[in-house]
Write a structure and sequence with these properties.
Radius of gyration: 21 Å
Shape: globular
Oligomer: single chain
CATH topology of the largest domain: Rossmann fold
Number of domains: 2
Number of strands: 9
Number of helices: 12
CATH class of the largest domain: Alpha Beta
């Protein structure tokens, strides 16, 4: 389901999960992200139905009242056909309430994304990426702050077109994921949004991109260090502001260096033009080290 669908409520998801009396768990796990399927994330009396193609996954979900072993796409098609127009307007009031929460949060969220502060706030970078991406682009996000900010602010519209580190938070997967995505779908724009720390783990794969003709567009949120150590007191946490764009150019990529928010979109456009010519590109954007992604304040967890 695209995130701009009338039944999608990304900024009201906590309220939706907490109030639902029946929850379909489709091809995913009830891990810590979903509070392991228990209150307070879900209602105490909520019924959980897990649909998964792997019976072992269903067996590992004792909190589900019903398990259905099936391909999710096939099962949803069958459920939709069986349901027909049965629901009617039964949930109209609830849907309207969730839409109200969504609308209430939208102005503040959009205002945060529009900041012109210097150094550039990661949310402004995310807004520029969001507005730049085609609906069918493939987005890979990897890092810490930029991963969390990206989750909050950059929507997905096409199944399988968003890749990130998953519940284990593994860093360094962004560029390798992007190369794999480009090899699988060469006709799609693949954008990898990296933190500078996570990029350092596999950044030399830009050489692979050049040698194997995999023109991905990499964008780096260059905040100069590992933000898990905000005071930079631990050795190795202050990374400096490396000119990854120069490194990319040395490897045969197109490089861009950005310090002002109004320059982000033109740099993205020039990088995309290089990608369209078959050349990998990297946009290196200096961002604010002090910025911390706080989902509760910015997005939906407080609904």
């Amino acid at each position: 389901m695209p995130e701009d669908h009338r039944c999608a409520f990304p900024n009201a998801r906590s309220a939706a999960l907490r109030e639902a009396d029946l929850v379909l768990v489709l091809g995913t796990r009830l891990n810590y992200v979903f509070g392991h399927g228990k209150p307070p994330r879900f209602a105490k009396n909520a019924k959980l139905i897990r649909i998964d193609i792997d019976p072992g996954e269903i067996a590992a979900t004792p909190q589900a009242q019903l398990g259905i072993c099936a391909d999710v796409r096939v099962a949803l098609g069958q459920l939709r056909a069986a349901a027909g127009g049965l629901a009617g307007n039964r949930y109209a009031a609830w849907m309207q309430r969730l839409a109200g929460i969504e609308a209430e949060k939208a102005p503040a969220a959009e205002a945060a994304l529009a900041t012109d502060q210097m150094p550039i706030h990661p949310l402004r970078l995310c807004r520029e990426v969001r507005d730049f991406l085609p609906r069918d682009a493939i987005l890979c996000v990897d890092g810490q702050e930029i991963l969390n900010y990206g989750r909050q602010s950059i929507p997905t519209h096409t199944p399988g077109h968003r890749l990130n580190s998953g519940p284990f938070g593994i860093m360094g997967v962004g560029l390798p994921f992007g190369l794999g995505a480009k090899a699988a779908k060469p006709d799609k724009l693949v954008l990898v949004l990296h933190g500078d720390g996570s990029f350092g783990l596999n950044g030399m794969e830009l050489d692979t991109a050049v040698r194997h003709n995999l023109p991905v567009l990499t964008v780096i949120s260059l905040n100069g260090g590992w933000t898990a150590d905000p005071k930079r007191e631990k050795p190795g946490r202050d990374l400096g502001y490396t000119r990854f764009d120069k490194m990319a150019e040395a490897l045969g990529c197109h490089g861009e260096f950005v310090e002002r928010p109004e320059d982000i979109r033109p740099a993205l456009d020039r990088a995309a033009a290089a990608v369209a010519r078959g050349q990998p590109a990297l946009v290196n954007v200096v961002t604010d080290f002090q910025a911390r992604a706080q989902t509760v304040r910015f997005s939906a967890s407080s609904t």
